[in-house]
Amino acid sequence: MSISLRKITHSVLVGDVKVGGGAPIVVQSMTNTDTADVTATANQIIELAKAGSEVVRITVNTEEAAAAVPDIYNRLQQLGCNTPIVGDFHFNGHKLLEKYPDCAQALAKYRINPGNVGRGKSRDPQFQQMIEFACQYNKPVRIGVNGGSLDQAVLTRLLDENRGLTHPEPLPAITRKAIVLSALESAAKAEELGLGKDKIILSCKISNVQELISIYQDLSSRCDYALHLGLTEAGMGSKGIVSSAAALAILMQQGIGDTIRISLTPEPGTSRTQEVIVAQELLQTMGFRSFAPMVISCPGCGRTTSDYFQKLAMDIQAYLRDQMPIWRNQYPGVEAMEVAVMGCVVNGPGESKSANIGISLPGTGEIPVAPVYEDGVKTVTLKGDHIAEEFQQIVERYIESHYGA
């Protein structure tokens, strides 16, 4: 596999998490609780962290939210959760950081949107205040430009320049340029105010896949800041997953991106952790990182009219992921393991042999036996009514013998 790596000589520390500078791509997520609710927000941060989120962003939009941040931080420390929390500021961040210094100190990073930091004459002074607070408290900043809240002053300036050209460019092209320029000019201003390059992360998010790819390709060619990737407002379910994966996979394959977030709209009442799992699986399937043993399973066909192999694959995958918080320290390296759960004789034995451990279940009309392969060698043939339980025990023994101390 050939992957072009974008060279960034420096890294940004977000808490204890290293972003850029050759570090593995970092998985981020964001809470959707009312930040003023300390218990709910701390619990969701812990839930996201257990799922694998290495940085969690929270909304800091009111005085009540800002006042709650130190309590959230302390609650996390008491419960043994050291995941860095990032403050998401719009419109009034300069006031909140000034009035609540304990909030400014507790946060591991500030997120500033150049389009929402202030309007007109107030924009530059308020942006300056935010950067000065970052310098005072030695915090990194993500300058996050969004297509939906683009700095209109930058866009207007580029549109005026474009109208004077012999061959004016279309509006989408000018908008792309404005998004990138807003990020770059804001970063340059932050450096002028004393914020080091090792304290700056840039993002330029938009909801269109092709536009996002074009924007980040342009941005990465014009700077060496650490970059945060994400398709904003990706949507719900498979649409959001596919759109995010399509955009981010192309960029990461080109070496673009140091930290990612999958901005899924969760279904009502469902866990926020799906966006973390999708981010991890995207990185793992592309070979960038490993987070949990991967289950290889076939889609099924007319040879597999029973849904037994589907249930077994689902159960094994859920079991492996549920065990990872324990196994991560107990069995180092287990996250790179592959388990195959196959449904018939066509590809079953071959895929099972290629995995670390695999089982080939009988298809329709086949002999009701299930050979198990470990590191390419058949070790046992299972039969009867307890194949699932016996295979899980075999997986557990394999993990203990191959990854245990």
Automatic annotation (TrEMBL):
Its cofactor is [4Fe-4S] cluster. The keyword Chloroplast does not apply. GO terms for biological process: isopentenyl diphosphate biosynthetic process, methylerythritol 4-phosphate pathway; terpenoid biosynthetic process. Its EC number is 1.17.7.3. It is an enzyme of class 1 (oxidoreductase). HAMAP family: IspG. This is 4-hydroxy-3-methylbut-2-en-1-yl diphosphate synthase (flavodoxin).
